[in-house]
Structures are given as structure tokens and as C-alpha cells.
């Protein structure tokens, strides 16, 4: 399975994929390219450390939104990938890409969708909202990307306890370590092994 991994920040979810591939826990999977929406993303350094092609493509470098969107599509097409993985990617994926790669784009969201998701719920904000609401369980979700924001068919979820003295940073770290870094590689594995079926927007795992 050939992957394009789209990132925006620290790249710890990318690192989880790299580690599982290098430890042969994730076989028949290759990251062909890492594309960052920000030049400063540490995720780019992580990719380069392992010799994975990495480019930064930010909207600011393009005259119009359309030019950026077509350039991003061309870059993804160039690598002839089977799956696009959004790993800590803050970019709303353009419609032309969502359509061309229907059910071949997955995203990791640091909450149990449909809770604490949608525009504006990203990074620490998600965990701040979780603490403000006082929920006792949160977690992460891997889902297929459709035209909406965090609205596509859910593939995997993993719950994480919220503890009394949690800060948003502590909670984010626990959700990453105990949920994100586990279910994102697991979802890629299920797709590599062709174990997923989608019926009426519900994902089922073949036995
Ligand atoms: C994580 O909380 C992730 O869930 C969210 O962005 C944050 C950073 O992810 N999507 P990463 O370390 O860049 O993978």
C-alpha cells in the first residue's frame, strides 16, 4: 500500500507510522511522500531523517485557492499513492481531491466523533473543550474523509480516561500515546489487508 501522509505540525502520528513500518509491524506499506501545509512543521524533519520525500505546500505561495488546490492534487497524483493519510493535518482537503480520492483518504481526530469535532476543533482546542465540559472519557477516531469536516465514515475509535487533574496538554499527550498512535497504524493495516467494507456509510471489518 503506497501512502501520501499530509501533516501540519509535530508529526508524532507520522512517526508512529514510520516506527511501525520500520519495526515490520506494518508490512506492505510504504510512505511515498510527506506533504506539509507549513514549512516549519517538525514532521518534515522526521520524514527527511528517514529519507522520505517531503515537501511543504502552503496556500500563501499561490495566487489563488484554485492554483493551490490543483498544485496539491498534482503533487499527490505524482506519487501514484493508494491512500492519503491526514496525520495532524489542519488543512480542509479540497473538494477536487476528496472526490478524486473518494474513500482513499483517512484522518485521525483527537476525540470520539461526533463529540468535539468539526471546524475549529483541532489540536489543544479539542482537549480544552473536553475539560470544560467535564466528560470522563475521550479518545481518538480514524475516519474516511468526505466533503464535510470530520463527517466521513468511522473506521476505528479508542477511548481514553480523563483524569481529575488533567490539563489540556497532559490530556493531549495521553490521547496521542494511548489512542492516536495505535489506531492510525491499525487503520492503515486494515486497509493494506483489504479488511474494510463500507455499507451505507458504515464501515465494517471483514473477519
Ligand atoms: C494531535 O493532537 C493530532 O490528533 C491532531 O494534531 C495534533 C498533532 O499531531 N490532529 P501530530 O503530532 O502532528 O501528528
Automatic annotation (TrEMBL):
Active site as annotated: 109
Pathway(s) annotated for this protein in UniProt: Purine metabolism; IMP biosynthesis via de novo pathway; N(2)-formyl-N(1)-(5-phospho-D-ribosyl)glycinamide from N(1)-(5-phospho-D-ribosyl)glycinamide (10-formyl THF route): step 1/1
One GO term describing the cellular component: cytosol
Residues engaged in binding N(1)-(5-phospho-beta-D-ribosyl)glycinamide: 11-13
Its job: Catalyzes the transfer of a formyl group from 10-formyltetrahydrofolate to 5-phospho-ribosyl-glycinamide (GAR), producing 5-phospho-ribosyl-N-formylglycinamide (FGAR) and tetrahydrofolate.
PANTHER family recorded: PHOSPHORIBOSYLGLYCINAMIDE FORMYLTRANSFERASE
Protein name: Phosphoribosylglycinamide formyltransferase
Species this chain originates from: Mobilitalea sibirica
Higher taxonomy: Bacteria, Bacillati, Bacillota, Clostridia, Lachnospirales
Gene: purN
Amino acid at each position: 500500500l503506497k501512502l501520501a501522509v499530509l501533516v501540519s505540525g509535530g508529526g508524532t502520528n507520522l512517526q508512529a507510522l514510520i516506527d511501525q513500518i520500520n519495526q515490520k509491524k506494518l508490512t506492505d506499506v510504504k510512505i511515498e511522500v510527506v506533504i506539509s501545509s507549513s514549512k516549519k512543521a517538525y514532521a518534515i524533519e522526521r520524514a527527511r531523517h528517514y529519507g522520505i520525500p517531503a515537501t511543504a505546500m502552503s496556500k500563501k505561495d499561490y495566487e489563488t485557492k484554485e492554483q493551490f488546490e490543483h498544485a496539491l492534487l498534482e503533487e499527490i497524483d505524482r506519487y501514484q499513492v493508494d491512500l492519503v493519510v491526514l496525520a495532524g493535518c489542519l488543512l480542509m482537503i479540497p473538494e477536487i481531491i476528496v472526490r478524486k480520492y473518494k474513500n482513499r483518504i483517512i484522518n485521525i481526530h483527537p476525540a470520539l466523533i461526533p463529540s468535539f469535532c468539526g471546524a475549529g476543533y483541532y489540536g489543544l482546542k479539542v482537549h480544552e473543550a473536553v475539560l470544560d465540559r467535564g466528560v470522563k472519557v475521550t479518545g481518538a477516531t480514524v475516519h474516511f474523509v468526505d466533503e464535510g469536516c470530520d463527517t466521513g465514515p468511522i473506521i476505528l475509535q479508542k477511548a481514553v480516561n480523563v483524569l481529575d487533574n488533567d490539563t489540556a496538554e497532559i490530556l493531549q499527550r495521553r490521547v496521542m500515546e494511548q489512542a492516536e498512535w495505535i489506531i492510525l497504524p491499525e487503520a492503515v493495516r486494515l486497509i493494506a489487508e483489504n479488511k474494510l467494507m463500507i455499507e451505507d456509510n458504515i464501515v465494517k471489518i471483514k473477519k
